[in-house]
Specification:
The chain is mostly helical and 448 residues long. It contains 20 helices and 6 strands. The protein folds into 2 domains: 195 residues, Serine Threonine Protein Phosphatase 5, Tetratricopeptide repeat (Alpha Horseshoe), CATH 1.25.40.390; 175 residues, Serine Threonine Protein Phosphatase 5, Tetratricopeptide repeat. Helix 9 runs antiparallel to helix 10.
Length: 448
């Protein structure tokens, strides 16, 4: 193909002089008008919804990390999840390359938007700031996920091919520093009110919510508690008392979600996880998770559904319930929600010695689930209770369970006991072999 194109370009100089179709814009012209710049941003959100790290399909974090941990059992040996469930992921695995390529592809798009806005002469400053704030938020979020699955990674802030072709892996403190810097800047650029209905574009509170998670993972308990508290005290948000309505698009618990894309469409997550015939075609919830819910837990009733073939019973996530077009969309994929902030602050407060405050936050979530108060006065017991509550509250959402096991140093104990192929090197994924061959400055993680 390259030879053919080279011949064509060499033989027909006039080919390069053809005007662009009226339906297309050059890179520079996109940023001469706020409406086309917004369209470029919307395209990034659409890419994130449809493919890569945060998408709800079978190759996103929600499905693959749930299979990699102890949330899902895989029933299809040919599915993308099978090597994750069996812990046989290799550097040549196509979904590993998909994580890397789509992640950095979406980061490239965010960087292009930032660069275009900085050079734009046709967009008002206030609009520039909001758009740039969202692009910085996206860039930080994607790098955060890439770091958590690959470890040391390059933090890409430019569209310059010559720079990006020879990038190095950076230390975790360096990556954390870059993530926090991007989010801190985004926080100054974004507003408190949402600029779109149904909270499908991040605002200042969404930045605080992500910062709270970043600080929690990084062990900065004071700032984790502070950022989570900022969101919790915001009157825009409230814990939804009926678990059946938590994942509706109008939920006051939603901090930021991804639009379904089409009128009447709902989440890819529902189409990925919900099955109606048995045995399951792809995967089902692990029975250890299903059985971990205490008697009377309303989440067990509302967020899990059973399917039987008359002899055996399987369970699937039922947080998102709509698998067909409903005329008017009912559910959007939630990226950040208030319950996580309470659990983040509870954990941070425990480490800070504020056990009363930690129990208070934890019990907000337990009350919504119809459970009695946790009354523990032992910090170790309280941390275990919070980790369990995170397991029951956040299952099959964006890889929370796996990342919790890794950051609390429990992955080997929990996963090693149930996965015969487990090895400590599985705490990180391999870098795609193709990337190491392309860039000699990259190197492989141990064990691959």
């Amino acid at each position: 193909m390259l030879l053919t194109l080279t011949s064509c370009f060499g033989a027909c100089e006039s080919f390069t002089e053809v005007d662009l179709p009226q339906s297309q814009l050059t890179g520079e012209s996109v940023y001469n008008d706020v409406s086309t710049a917004r369209a470029a941003l919307s395209d990034i959100y659409a890419r994130m919804r449809e493919s890569g790290l945060v998408c709800g399909n079978g190759q996103g974090l929600s499905a693959l990390m749930a299979s990699y941990s102890d949330e899902l059992v895989t029933y299809s040996s040919s599915s993308a999840a099978a090597p994750y469930y069996n812990h046989t992921v290799s550097a040549t695995n196509s979904s590993i390359a998909n994580f890397w390529n789509t992640g950095y592809g979406q980061i490239y798009a965010a960087n292009a938007l930032i660069k275009g806005l900085e050079n734009s002469q046709g967009i008002e400053t206030a609009d520039k700031e909001k758009l740039k704030g969202e692009a910085l938020f996206i860039r930080a979020l994607l790098h955060f996920h890439l770091m958590n699955v690959f470890g040391k990674i390059p933090y890409i802030t430019t569209t310059d091919y010559h720079v990006n072709a020879v990038v190095h892996r950076q230390s975790l403190p360096e990556v954390y520093q870059a993530i926090i810097a991007d989010l801190s800047q985004a926080k100054t650029l974004l507003s408190d009110p949402y600029v779109a209905s149904f909270r499908v574009r991040p605002n200042k509170a969404a930045v605080s919510a992500l910062l709270a998670r970043v600080y929690l993972y990084n062990g900065n308990w004071n700032l984790a508690a502070t950022e989570a508290g900022t969101v919790i005290s915001n009157p825009l948000y409230a814990i939804v008392q009926d678990p059946a309505t938590v994942f509706l698009k109008e939920s006051n618990e939603t901090i930021w979600s991804l639009h379904a894309g089409l009128a009447g469409a709902n989440t890819i997550d529902a189409r990925t996880f919900v099955f109606t015939v048995a045995p399951p075609p792809f995967f089902a919830l692990d029975n250890t998770l299903v059985n971990a819910f205490p008697a009377g837990d309303l989440r067990r009733v509302n967020w899990i559904k059973s399917v039987t073939n008359g002899t055996n019973t399987w369970y699937h996530p039922f947080k998102y319930k709509q698998i067909i077009n409903t005329g008017a969309s009912r559910e959007f994929t939630i990226m950040l929600r208030l319950a996580e902030q309470y659990l983040t602050r509870a954990e941070a407060r425990t480490y800070l010695g504020d056990l009363d405050g930690a129990r208070k936050d934890l019990n907000v979530i337990r009350h919504r689930a119809g459970l009695s108060d946790n009354v523990s006065h032992n910090p170790a017991d309280l941390l275990e209770a919070i980790l369990m509550e995170r397991r029951l509250e956040l299952f099959t959402e964006q890889g929370h369970r796996w990342f919790d096991l890794v950051r609390t140093n429990k992955a080997t104990t929990v996963i090693g006991a149930i996965k015969p192929a487990w090895d400590v090197t599985h705490l990180l994924f391999p870098l795609p072999e193709t990337e190491i061959l392309l860039n000699r400055n990259l190197y492989q993680n141990p064990g691959y």
